[in-house]
Amino acid sequence: MTGRRIEFSASDGLRLAATEWPGAADRAPLLCLPGICRTALDYHALAVRQAGARRVVALDYAGHGESARAADPRRYRPEPLIRDVLDAMAALHLHRVVLVGTSFGGLTAMAIGTMRPTALSAVVLNDIGPQIETLGREAVINLIGTDPSCTSLDAATAWLRQRHPPLPALDDAGWRAFTARTFAEGEDRLWHPRWDVRIGQQAVGEEAGAPPDLWPFFAGLARLPLMLVWGQESRLLNADTVAAMRRTAPDMRVVSLPGTGHAPTLEEPAVVSALDPFLAALP
């Protein structure tokens, strides 16, 4: 099942893109938000598994995937990107959504849960919590800001596989497919990231500021059906934080993946066997 690409404008006129799969209109739509160096392509398998059970929309943030690149890289700061998600929810009539958020997408879910509490009906956090480890954050920033300009998809696969945290669920073909969702061939016939590498500039330096205290944001999600997918080798989310999240949200379901780093693909068998029934039980 191939999703339909849709385009709309953010409040400042920047063109944004998403991929939509149709589904039952009487059930809460599924809004999928990727990580900061990922795109809507990551959610194709999940959308296909939903098989029309509910509408699915996967968003490309500004500067990512099929969305437009901004003239001013400050447009990629977290606050404008979160506003874009709210704009998307309004423009695409996404109300009371089930939100699946990977990494930055999960942080966005926490923000929306505070800013617009009634906009969410359930949340799945993929390898992210209210405490972000410094070393993991630095590794993500480095990846975001790097364009290796690889000569082929095979070269890009080798480059990414060497630097990416462990994803034991991926075999050789899986890594190649994962890389094809990460890089695209440009007009120069080189393979470049599917995002504007200037995004990395907004996460470093004095202008980035200190991260806010996210624990009150996370606590706001505890009232909702909540699931956490955790790669136990994640450098962003450690065991102590997961334990504290369990205490804050005792009803939160947790799927732990041994040997897996940041971030799980959501196609791991253990994730599928837990996530799909979780979604199926939601209205």
TrEMBL record:
The organism's place on the tree of life at top rank: Bacteria
Domain AB hydrolase-1 intervals: 30-274
Pfam families given in the database record: Abhydrolase_6 (PF12697)
Swiss-Prot/TrEMBL keywords: Hydrolase
GO molecular function: hydrolase activity
Annotated PANTHER family: HYDROLASE ALPHA/BETA FOLD FAMILY, PEROXISOMAL MEMBRANE PROTEIN LPX1
Official protein name in the record: Alpha/beta hydrolase
Species for this entry: Neoroseomonas terrae
